[in-house]
């Protein structure tokens, strides 16, 4: 039986930040499940960087089915969790079921990959205090308020927590996460 990895997300998540780790982890031989507030077809977005804009732009992205609702997740069945960014973390951090799930990953020191706005979720469970992280650069003050040391880098590894700024850093983020994951929960 393949080792299970959980991706937690919702509507308005960044398409690439969900689908790149989903495909990459499956390619490694992991059984990947996507959880959201409810089982439904999720609507992702595409964030892009355009000349002349002070921040990213947002366009409609892919749709993808959620395999599980947060209320159906047994964190003990999963070796690691991936937390994509986009706008989804802004509202997901208010979900008590999701906060219980994330806390269990921190409590058991399982690998956690977070990217872009994903660290808003780990901050909501006080998982960043005393840790080194990166995130979308506009979240630097949020990361500091959560007690973390912010580093503007493609990927930052602090124990089993691997964070990244945004989708342009995917290859470095997944390389670092897979190094942690292979050590803690090899696919085979």
Describe it for me?
The protein is an alpha/beta fold. It has one domain: Class I glutamine amidotransferase (GATase) domain (Rossmann fold, 3-Layer(aba) Sandwich), CATH 3.40.50. Helix content is 30%, strand content 27%. The chain contains six helices and eleven strands. It has helices at 15-27, 88-92, 96-107, 119-124, 140-145, 170-184; strands at 4-8, 31-36, 41-48, 57-65, 68-69, 80-83, 112-115, 132-133, 149-150, 155-158, 161-164. Strands 5-2-1-6-7-11-10 form a seven-stranded mixed beta sheet, with helices on both faces. The protein has a two-stranded antiparallel sheet with strand order 3-4. Strand 10 and strand 11 form a beta hairpin. The protein is globular and about 50 Å long. The N and C termini lie close together (9 Å).
Shape: globular
List the total number of helices: 6
* Beta-strand residue fraction: 25-35%
> How many independent structural domains?
1
Fraction of helical residues: 25-40%
Structural class: alpha/beta
- Low-confidence parts lasting 5 or more residues at pLDDT below 50? none
- Amino- and carboxy-terminal Cα gap: 9 Å
Family: Belongs to the peptidase C56 family.
Protein name: DJ-1/PfpI family protein
InterPro entries: C56_PfpI-like, Class_I_gatase-like, DJ-1/PfpI
Pfam family, one: DJ-1_PfpI
